[in-house]
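hey team, just a heads up i'm posting the complex here instead of the shared drive bc the drive is being weird again. everything in one block, sequence lines first with there labels, then the predicted structure for the whole assembly after. its two chains so it's a bit long, scroll down
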Amino acid sequence: MSSSSRTRRRFVHPVLVTVLLLFALGVPLWLVVVTSGKSRGDALSPSLSLPKHGWHFGANYSKAFTDGRVWSAFVGSVSIVVPSVVLLLLFGAMAAWVFARRRGFVVAMLYAIAISGIVLPPAVITLVLLLRQLGLAGTLTGMVLVYTGIYMSTAVFFITGFIRTIPPQLEEAARVDGAGPIRIFFTIVVPLLRPVLATATILICLYIWNDVFYAFFVIGGRKDTLPLNLFQVASAGLYLNNWHLIFAYVVLMSLPLLVAFAVAQRRIISGITGGAVK
Amino acid sequence: MTLTTSTDAARASGAPLPPPGRAAQPGSGARRQVRPGQPWWFLLPALAVLTTFFLVPTVYNLVYAFTDWSSFKTAINPVGFENFRSLLSSGVLLADLRTTVIYALLVALFQNVFGLLLALLLEADTKLNRFARVMFFIPVIMSALAVGYVFQALLKPTGVVNSILGAVAGHPVRYAWLADTRWTLLYVALIHAWKWMGLAMLIYLAGLKTIDQDALEAARIDGASTWQTFWQIRFPLLAPAMTFNVATAMLGWMNSFDIVQATTGGGPAQTTEILNIFIYRTFGQGLFAQATTMSLVLLLVIAVMAFPTIWLLRRRERVL
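-- predicted structure starts here --
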């Protein structure tokens, strides 16, 4: 029984994987790419077929690039994601170190409050009100602080869990040798945190880079980010059935992360799993 | 707070602090003064940002849900439970609440099932499997909004999915996937799970890798079937992976907006209107108090469901 089932599996398995790849991924991805190269008439009803009236990649992409203000949106997205990630990792790791190492009722209470944001949804309407009162509405600073607030719980939760698995002896030895807490933190603790910081960075980047909901409330209409501009392009495009432009923009906005992923694919995959499952 | 002040006082008076991670040893009388390991102020930046941009708006939410705040008037007056009453009587509140909870549960279920099945399918380290794993991660890095538009195109009555089904069935299929008041919510949840299943797969793959091969071999020699080894040995050992997937799926709950907005916009007949779509819609209409009320309801519902979950996650953490 075992040998026949094994040969069957050796034969069936690759076929199954290929069919799944073709249908579950090939179809949607091909639809995007082929439609983004079609003329408006060909793209009215998006299909998998090749264009009847020739390829229009150049015209579609340059139109999507100007209509969607891709360059300005890219700069906007980067200048939001980078500071948010830096603040989240730095503040998150500092707090996590205290939460992981200190004991007691107060620490437990503060930790429960600090990770409450993992499950509780941000109160987005009153957040906008608060930002107006602080003079931060519609600014990149406001957006960065909002993301930092929203994902701080996630950062603290993952990093605290990771620090608890690291034995404290190294830090204690350094302390006995007279090293101050700041030095211990940056020279001993932070280097040990690399796997979990990698995981947190990748996850937080994915969430913030692609977010449109909070961005709409905080900076919508005032600043450009890649998803916000897709929302704009698509809202106008759906009305006019401009699928070729929508999908050209989808390809353009996906390129930065796709390139990053292609370059560092192995490290990203091991990074996500490294800090996630201990 | 009492502990904070007592440690601060201890630090000020130069008394030795017990090393962290151990029980306090009152009167142990250490000669050398050892500075505290982790200063309390390390908590400050994180807690300051969290308080200002997360907790304060939440408190505001409690207040403004009971006012008539809108873009049509300059004054804001308290109105008691009026917003709740009108949302309840129009039926929007309960309908959207139901939609949100069902959507969240469906997404969490599909995402974990798809992720686990993919992980089991692509577990062996063959070239094809490695390629497939990378490919299945592409939807994860795509914008959810973009994914929504792609599926809107695929699921049009004249779209690709229907033409494939038509080719299989032998007769034209014209099913309006995204206009079915009964099943569209299910389809949108499937799209959501499609987008994130690559991440769940990776986590499960990592979990499968940590399982001791000797135990599996021993079970196999003892005559256990593949099915038995999976449920008896491998599935329980996937607990940490599942914890992680549940935690990330919960982040997905509150971010549930993009895919629904891009596929159905809450329709047909508001049957896929999750709370965030309502908030977005009423905010656009200038009905801030109504949007705030809904936001408060969302908060309460999730809080009620969250406490047992946090407790479970933390208990699990301790077991591991």
